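Exercise 7.
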Amino acid sequence: MVSNFIVQALRGEPMTVYGDGRQTRSFCYVSDIVDGVVRLMESSSDYGGSVNLGNPHEIAIGDLAEKLRGLVGSRSEIHSLARPADDPTRHCPDIRRARSDLGWAPQVTLDDGLRRTIAFFDAVLRRSSENADDAPRLRAVGDGL
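Solution. The predicted structure, written as tokens, is:
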């Protein structure tokens, strides 16, 4: 959803929120997840259960859309569509075991991670618009993956 919101905002398209936007999610930047996985692999502990990695700070989907719109500097409208029946109300990992056993917690803030992600997608969209003549060929190659 983050990538969809960012691309929609960068293009000035309506940003699509499913449901009323009050359902929550937590977002963890990829470098933090990689760090947690590496720590888990290097750990001498024998884990019989699960170790959750993620960010325990939740944000409502509607608030995330507004935050991204602001960070992008977009005037995109936020449109609500019907929420899928299987869409959970809340997603938030319990990282107590990762903290205690691995000494792990996410380091990249939501705002910093979003800024990095916006910069990435902005660069991708700029490259794709500069290489518009190559776009049909690139889409065809991508369709086969």
